[in-house]
Amino acid sequence: MRAYAPVQRVAGLLLLFVSLGFVPPIVFALVAADGTAGAFLISLLSISAIGSLLYWPVRNNRRELRVADGFLVVVACWAAVALAGALPLFLVLEVSLADAVFESTSGITTTGATVLSGIDDMPIAIRWYRQQLQWMGGLGIIVLAVAILPILRIGGMEIYKAEITGPVKENRLTPRIAQTAKALWLIYIGLTLICALALWAAGMNLFDAVTHSFTTISTAGFSTYDASVGHFDSALIDWLLVVFMFIASMNFAWHFLALRRATAQVYLNNPELKLFGLLLLVISLLITVLLWQQEVYESFWESLRYAVFQAVSYTTTTGFATADVYLWPGTLPLLMILISGLGGCAGSTTGGFKIVRVYLVSKQGVRELKRLIHPHSVVPLKLGGRTLNPEIANAVWGFVSLYIVCIVILTLIVSSLENDLVTSVSVVFSAMNNLGPALGEAGLHWGGLSQATKWLMSFAMLLGRLEIFTVLVLLTPTYWRH
Hints:
This protein is an all-alpha fold. It has a domain at about 385-480. It has 22 helices and two strands. It has helices spanning about 5-20, 25-30, 35-55, 65-95, 95-110, 125-140, 140-150, 155-165, 175-200, 205-215, 235-250, 250-260, 265-270, 270-295, 300-315, 330-340, 355-375, 390-415, 420-430, 450-465, 470, 475-480, and strands at about 380-385, 385. A two-stranded antiparallel sheet has the order 1-2. The mean pLDDT is about 85.
């Protein structure tokens, strides 16, 4: 087991760090006297004790993490944090273990699917805690730890590359990975503060403004109300959230470079962002026309408001709702679930396929058509004027293949556990794309699904959040031989 001592050391330190996340809910519980302080205190002591037991025996091990270790660290830590996060939910809400783990995993992976109802009347500490879970998972628990805890700098690049989203993972913003992580988190915190202030000025109370800024910038989707953002019934809040969901779905490296260079050219000259904006525009207009034609809403402008909000929310995999999409007529609900597969830009907090992969797959398709006409021609694959390494193209196709295979296998398994095929397909798509909303029996919430489905979808949420490769590589014999 000495070979895995560095992994154990990082996992122990991370749990010690994550246990501090129980402090804010304890403060809320004590101030509100809602009776949950004891459960959060037990959680803090228990998780910190487990972290100490993992860390202490290997505290003097200084072996550098290998590239392969990065995958194991990321998967082990995300799974450990998901389990740790379930403890206060299990103690306070007295739900089943499957429900508690599902809710925690949904939170930390920024999926936003929930098995709970009656959220409006829950203790304020729990309502805060659910939102906080998603904010912590937004840019990644481990990237947060690398940014804050200098002792976790060992193997930082391996951890970063295993966790960061998108096919191109070699670029650094700063010479040291810890500085890169800090830069990303400073931008993340700054956007959260700006979003909270904007929502507060728009009419939310301070608690709702802060908690919804957590889940907007993390493109996560939990709300402190059963009706989600629809609770506020405010066009101004809806449009503000559309703007911030769009900003959060961009690559955070672009925000960093735009601030450092004091120019918007970083955004204007980016082919991925241009495609993303075009897709959002087309999808929004399509849904607006369909809603208006089918007279779901009384006017074109009302149709536009609800269409744009849901289009941006689903495409960015945020999962906020201002309408009961699962009750929309025709094929609209299925269309909404399918567009979640697009996701946002690589390097953002979104789930899904990622726009850069859509862009590269489209470019490769066009390239193959050209080669059919001119078999001996050499057509390089380019992104923003830069010729890409063929290995990136292979990785994109590999991701596409594994994505489809995982969707098919998980759907077949879930359809054998649930009675409704629409439910089965939608929950798998939602979990894999870290979306949240679903159709059929999971339209209102996921509480009616079987325990086995909830465990399987907890795994699917981790699989989607870590972009498949990071998890599946641990299932190969080759990994463990080396």
